[in-house]
């Protein structure tokens, strides 16, 4: 009898037998005979149904690409985040009246006026005026919709940075990239759908800027430090130095089986699910991600176009990621906190991104990707039109939450457009004011979503990126 295969199968310890709470043990002990009767009635169909459920769940993976409910051209988003708060009156919002008040008191402002040290010129068929510090990006001005009337709530870098990326000032909430991935999934299951590229140190707010928060962990962004030109250093620990691919697959299959048993017999844990998904993603990334981040495979003329700088490499990697179906790429292009020495420091900050950004737009356009890729550039707030009190002989500008500029390109944007306006000195938005929530609502609309209907049920409430605010800026949509 003991040599009978069926007997051994029925009397051997199974992995699932190890997952029992005390309550489950007592419940099974007391209802054992009833369970036997029920099993007799259903035969082997229960096991088959469980397997079918697993297969169905796999075929409807949360990251599978989804069709947006509304008509839209944008399929990908690239957010070039100029963290540090660029001065709007020195970049995208010329103010001749400020020149007339240089060194003089300005009504409603503490301090004296500080005329922009940079010249503005008209570019493109649209004749939009742009600062000389962005002369290369300005060659694409007919593809840009420049919002000059942005405003936010609090002019503090850490708070405003997280607010720009999550739409929340207090409670930890999912980032814009996480919401995008939740709504659209991703086109490449072998790559993260949301990638955050940073050239060095972790920015203010850290992982809060690419977090999934209460959304399932698989929607969280993958942060990559692009400071090093070496792919192996950028993607640390992506390869297992001790096990081959086949052995790794066996390990992951065992972990998945144990997790399925845990979920069925005990409970489903979001953090555990996210960690296992991260292991799976790392396994799938071993070949494709390494190739995507290896810009040495690009022709020399393309590498020359972007330039051999940290942000040039970032944006070239970004284009390669977009080509491979990555849904959302966050590009950190900081260094804009200019309280003093603005004339030299702002020029330097602009020079680091101007050429690479122009190359990126050119490259996307040549490859037919700009029409389906929404590109957003901007900071977390703006700057005052007066001299910073700490500037002394080499002045800069202090924080200003009442006015700043952001531009959008591609992905259904109405190019060659100026939307909104600030007052004559650029101190505050006064015409067609656009709040951060409005910008988020507009980005979602360009992706094919009604921002009021893209929601997630959490803690008894339907949450959304724009909370209970936001209106779509139709003036920048083609």
A few lines on this structure:
With 478 residues, this protein is α/β, with parallel strands linked by helices. It has one domain (76-232, 293-476): Alkaline Phosphatase, subunit A, CATH 3.40.720.
Radius of gyration: 27 Å
Sheet/helix structural class: alpha/beta
* CATH architecture classification name: 3-Layer(aba) Sandwich
Q: Main sheet?
A: 9 strands, mixed
Number of helices: 14
Return the average pLDDT rounded to an integer: 85
Number of DSSP E strands: 17
- Oligomeric status: single chain
The overall number of domains is 1
Describe the structure.
The strands form 5 sheets. Strands 1, 4, 5, 6, 7, 8, 11, 12 and 15 form a 9-stranded mixed beta sheet that branches. This protein is of the alpha/beta class and 478 residues long. The chain has helices at residues 5-11, 22-30, 32-42, 45-59, 96-100, 157-166, 176-184, 231-234, 245-265, 270-292, 300-306, 310-323, 342-366, 436-446; strands at residues 76-81, 120-123, 128-131, 144-151, 194-198, 222-225, 328-332, 373-378, 382-383, 399-400, 404-409, 417-419, 421-422, 429-431, 434-435, 456-458, 461-463. Strand 2 and strand 3 (128-131) form a beta hairpin. The protein has a single domain (76-232, 293-476), classed as 3-Layer(aba) Sandwich (Alkaline Phosphatase, subunit A). Residues 25-59 have low confidence and may be disordered.
């Amino acid at each position: 009898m003991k040599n009978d295969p069926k007997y051994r199968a029925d009397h051997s310890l199974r992995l699932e037998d190890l997952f029992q709470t005390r309550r489950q043990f007592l419940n099974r002990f007391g209802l054992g005979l009833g369970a036997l009767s029920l099993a007799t009635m259903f035969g082997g169909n229960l096991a088959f149904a469980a397997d079918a459920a697993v297969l169905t769940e796999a075929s409807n993976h949360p990251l599978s690409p989804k069709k947006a409910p509304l008509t839209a051209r944008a399929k990908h988003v690239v957010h070039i985040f100029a963290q540090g708060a660029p001065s709007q009156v020195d970049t995208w919002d010329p103010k001749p009246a400020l020149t007339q008040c240089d060194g003089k008191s300005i009504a409603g402002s503490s301090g004296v006026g500080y005329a922009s040290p940079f010249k503005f010129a008209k570019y493109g068929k649209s004749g939009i005026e742009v600062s000389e510090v962005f002369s290369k990006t300005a060659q694409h001005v007919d593809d840009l919709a420049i919002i000059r009337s942005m405003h936010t709530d609090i002019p503090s870098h850490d708070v405003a940075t997280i607010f720009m990326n999550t739409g929340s000032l207090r409670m930890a909430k999912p980032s814009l990239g996480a919401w995008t991935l939740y709504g659209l999934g991703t086109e490449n299951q072998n790559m993260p759908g949301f990638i955050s590229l940073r050239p060095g140190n972790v920015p203010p707010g850290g992982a809060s800027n690419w977090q999934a928060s209460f959304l399932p962990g698989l929607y969280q962004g993958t942060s990559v430090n692009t400071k090093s030109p070496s792919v192996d250093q950028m993607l640390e620990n992506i390869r297992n130095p001790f096990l081959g691919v086949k052995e790794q697959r066996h390990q992951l299959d065992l972990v998945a089986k144990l997790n399925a048993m845990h979920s069925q017999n005990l409970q489903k844990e979001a953090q555990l699910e996210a960690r296992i998904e991260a292991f799976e993603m790392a396994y799938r990334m071993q070949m494709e991600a390494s190739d995507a981040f290896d810009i040495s495979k690009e022709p020399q003329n393309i590498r020359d176009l972007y330039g051999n700088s940290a942000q040039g490499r970032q944006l070239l990697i970004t284009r390669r990621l977009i080509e491979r179906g990555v849904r959302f790429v966050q590009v950190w292009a900081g260094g804009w906190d200019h309280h003093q020495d603005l004339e030299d420091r702002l020029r330097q900050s602009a020079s680091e991104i101007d050429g690479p950004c122009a190359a990126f737009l050119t490259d996307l356009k040549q490859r037919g990707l700009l029409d389906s890729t929404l590109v957003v550039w901007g900071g977390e707030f703006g700057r005052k039109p007066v001299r910073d009190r700490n500037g002394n002989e080499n002045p800069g500008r202090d924080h200003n939450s009442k006015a700043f500029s952001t531009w959008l390109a591609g992905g259904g944007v109405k190019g060659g457009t100026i939307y909104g306006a600030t007052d004559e000195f650029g101190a505050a938005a006064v015409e067609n004011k656009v709040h951060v929530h409005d910008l988020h609502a507009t980005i979602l609309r360009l992706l094919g979503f009604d921002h009021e209907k893209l929601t997630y049920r959490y803690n008894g409430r339907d949450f959304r990126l724009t909370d209970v605010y936001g209106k779509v800026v139709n003036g920048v949509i083609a």
